[in-house]
Specification:
globular; Immunoglobulin-like; alpha+beta; eight-stranded mixed beta sheet; about 300 residues; 18 strands; 6 helices; five-stranded mixed beta sheet
Length: about 300
């Protein structure tokens, strides 16, 4: 099932936006790669395992994405935080990146240039996750006190990520690490995982059969690279093989939910509701060495919901 030839149609369409920039930014990639090497002088350790989050207040962290800008609070309290993207006419994927400390404007500019061209998250930042499929679903991320950057990694028609054009915003997290965003009533109910998926290089490890209904999926990146989760529901009569070989996979599946890229060692939670049917989980993050999307390296899993 994982032969490269059987998935070329799907991968071609899913990566069309990303590939439009290659011819225009070949030289920029080389320069930004050198910049990324310079930035790696500061090392960041990803957040380790963490207990299930307490349910935050309804507001959480709401991010509004518009052409050339992100709108969000400048400061939030530490703790498990519900991160959501406000509805928008355009497609946006906002990632929460943890920084080792305050980042100067010139350093941030260089880091954003590296993010625009490299397939991996440039050091010294760590990707913590975020809403992968726009306003379809919120995610829950553990934010410890420190400095963060919100950035849209969607590529526009010009081949550049939206963050390159201004869709990024600094975020400061204050308070104790065990603080929780929410009032007393919200903290009383724990957000307990009903399913767990481990993200490894290059596969999803977890059950192949799930029950229909509401779920909270715990995502653990135990691999050495960034990984994401994109989940689609196959249409009636469609098969995984047909979806993989399709020139237009959107005709055979409906997007359901997703978690944006998570760095090694991070944990996040994805609440979602599933109807009976067949689903496909896959990852489009690029491999650090080959630049091939992880789905081409086998990071794809069929899930049956009953």
């Amino acid at each position: 099932m994982h032969r490269r030839g059987s998935r070329l149609g799907t991968v071609r369409l899913l990566l069309a936006r990303a590939r439009t920039a290659r011819a225009r930014t070949a030289c920029a990639r080389t320069a930004c790669a050198r910049t990324a090497c310079a930035i790696t002088a500061c090392a960041v350790t990803a957040c380790g395992d963490a207990p299930p989050p307490q349910a935050p207040a309804q507001a959480g962290l709401i991010v509004e994405a518009a052409r050339g800008a992100l709108q969000a609070p400048d400061t939030v309290r530490a703790g498990w935080t519900r991160v959501a993207l406000a509805p928008s006419d355009a497609r946006h994927i906002v990632v929460v990146f943890r920084l080792p400390g305050p980042m100067r404007d010139d350093t941030l500019t260089a880091w954003l240039a590296a993010l625009d061209t490299l397939p991996v998250t440039p050091a010294p930042a760590v990707a913590m996750g975020g809403p992968e499929m726009g306003a379809r679903n919120a995610v829950h991320i553990s934010l410890t006190p420190g400095h963060y950057l919100l950035a849209c990694v969607t590529r526009g028609d010009d081949g550049h990520r939206h963050a390159h054009g201004g869709e990024h915003r600094r975020l400061t997290v204050v308070g104790n690490a065990d603080d929780t965003n929410g009032d007393t009533a919200a903290r009383a109910d724990s957000l307990v995982a009903t399913q767990t998926l481990r993200l490894v290089d290059f596969a999803y490890v977890g059950p192949e059969q799930w029950t229909a209904g509401a779920h909270v999926v715990r995502l653990e990146n135990t691999g050495a690279q960034d990984h994401q989760l994109r989940l689609v529901r196959l249409r009636e009569g469609a098969t995984v093989q047909a979806w993989m070989a399709a020139d237009d996979p959107d005709t055979l599946a409906t997007p359901v939910a997703g978690m944006a890229r998570m760095g090694p060692g991070t944990v996040a939670y994805l609440p979602l509701t599933l109807e009976p049917g067949r689903y496909v989980a896959y990852c489009l993050v690029g491999d650090a060495a080959s630049r091939r999307p992880h789905v081409e390296l086998g990071m794809l899993r069929a899930i049956e919901v009953r």
